[in-house]
Design goal:
Nucleoside Triphosphate Pyrophosphohydrolase, alpha+beta, 3-stranded antiparallel β-sheet, 2 helices, globular, two-stranded antiparallel sheet, about 110 residues
């Protein structure tokens, strides 16, 4: 997880992620975002679920697609210091606070196995 700064969700902990580029496949976007944010290469990407996320104070509404994957190469590090200030591994039931709204919503519908 990364502790976000500077933009949407600033001050919260989140998984690596971002917006799809026009015409980009979900798996390609996931690979790109994880490399850009952490330097880690991933494989065996599987779509898990989605959440409907309404950020009332920001007047934003997103559908967040969640995937799971395996590390293929690399050690996580902050690659975009203007977007994150901390990085770490956390157990599903021991995530740091505060967490990003889409993850709050994910935890309501998905039990990690």
């Amino acid at each position: 997880m990364l502790k976000k700064i500077g933009a949407h969700g600033s001050g919260t902990w989140s998984f690596p992620g971002g917006h799809l580029e026009f015409g980009e496949e979900i798996e390609d976007a996931v690979r790109r975002e994880v490399i850009e944010e952490t330097g880690v290469e991933i494989k065996n990407i599987q779509q898990v679920t989605f959440t409907n996320d309404i950020f009332s104070q920001e007047d934003k509404h997103y559908i967040t697609i969640f995937v799971k994957a395996e590390i293929d190469a690399g050690e996580p590090e902050i690659k975009e210091p203007d977007k994150a200030v901390e990085i770490g591994w956390f157990e599903w039931n021991k995530m740091p606070e505060p967490i990003f709204l889409p993850i709050i919503n994910l935890k309501k519908i998905y039990e990690f196995n």
